[in-house]
Every structure is written in C-alpha cells, then in structure tokens.
Write a structure and sequence with these properties.
mainly alpha; 62% helix; flat
Length: 113
C-alpha cells in the first residue's frame, strides 16, 4: 500500500510538469528500456555466434521452403481425407424429402350485419 501511495504521488508530480518535460521523460525512459531489452537480446545471441561451433548433423538433402510447404499441404490433405472418409456426393434432391403441402382454408373476414 505504501508503494502504491508513492506511485500515485509520483504520477501526480509528472502530470503537473510541462508537456515538453513529460515528453523528455518519455523519450529517456524508452531509451533506457530499449537498451535493457537490446542488451538481453545481444546476450542471447552469444550462444549462436560467440560459442564454439558444434558439429551439426548434415542431411544429404537440403530442405527447401516450398518443399516443406508442399509436404505440409500433402500431410494436411491426407489427414483431412482420413478424418472425413468416403463421402458420396449424391444429389441433394434425393436426400431431402419434399415439404408437405398444406391446403389452406379461405376465411372471409367480411362482417355480417
């Protein structure tokens, strides 16, 4: 609760400052945040570029992006066919029974006097 109180007071002091000063504070905080995030990112890249290269298993056939995409589509199609099964494409007319026709009775709305 005490930290929340101090945070509210700090926000009020920021709101009381001029617009130019608030923009400067925003830019500085963004720069500090980006430096922090960038340093973590660069530190993570050390594993890829700074470490000793390890022997990779070399495949005899290089995977091409379009070949991978084609394999993905083929697998999706096979899974779809397996899950749907054999569907016969009979005419819809044969499957749907015609609606029952109801005879309407004409009612005269004329009032007899």
């Amino acid at each position: 609760m005490i930290k929340l109180k101090y945070m509210r007071e700090y926000i009020k002091t920021l709101q009381d400052k001029s617009e130019n000063k608030r923009k400067q504070i925003l830019v500085v905080s963004l720069i500090v945040s980006m430096v922090f995030v960038s340093s973590i990112w660069i530190y993570g890249l050390e594993d890829h570029f700074g470490a000793k290269p390890q022997a990779k298993a070399v495949s005899t056939t290089e995977e091409k992006p379009f070949a991978l995409f084609g394999d993905s589509l083929t697998g999706t199609y096979k899974n779809l066919v397996a899950s749907v099964g054999n569907i016969s494409f009979a005419k819809k007319k044969d499957l749907i029974t015609p609606p029952k026709q109801i005879d309407l009775i004409v009612v005269d709305n004329a009032v007899k006097q």
